[in-house]
Amino acid sequence: MEQIEEKMAHLTRTVDDLSDIVARQQREIDVLTRRVAMLMQREAEREADAGSHIFTGQEQPPHY
Q1: What distance in Å separates the CA atoms of residue 20 and residue 58, rounded to the nearest whole number?
Q2: Cα–Cα dist 38/31, whole Å
Q3: How many whole angstroms separate alpha carbon 6 and alpha carbon 26?
Q4: Which of the residues 9, 17, 36, 64 could staple to 60 if both were Cys, CB 3.0 to 4.6 A apart?
Q5: What secondary structure, in 3-state letters, does 6-47 show?
Q6: What is the C-alpha separation between 12 and 6, in angstroms, rounded?
Q7: Buried-state track 27-60, b at ≥16 Cβ within 10 A, e below 16
Q8: Is the dihedral of CA 36, 39, 40, 41 positive or negative?
């Protein structure tokens, strides 16, 4: 009976540790998902702005 209790305590500890790890990973995934969404929106805005610029020939290119 003592062996079963020890094994159960070990398994309970393992489950608690894994639960903490999964919760931490979920928080990291949430942060990364928000960052990717923000970058996708920023890139879409940048692409939209690039098409709205009209080059008149009098302007210097951006690398000057």
Answers
A1: 61
A2: 11
A3: 30
A4: 64
A5: HHHHHHHHHHHHHHHHHHHHHHHHHHHHHHHHHHHHHHHHHH
A6: 10
A7: eeeeeeeeeeeeeeeeeeeeeeeeeeeeeeeeee
A8: positive
Q: Is the pLDDT higher at 52 or at 30?
A: 30
Write out pLDDT tens, residues 6-35.
Answer: 999 999 999 999 999 999 999 999 999 999
pLDDT of residue 48: 85
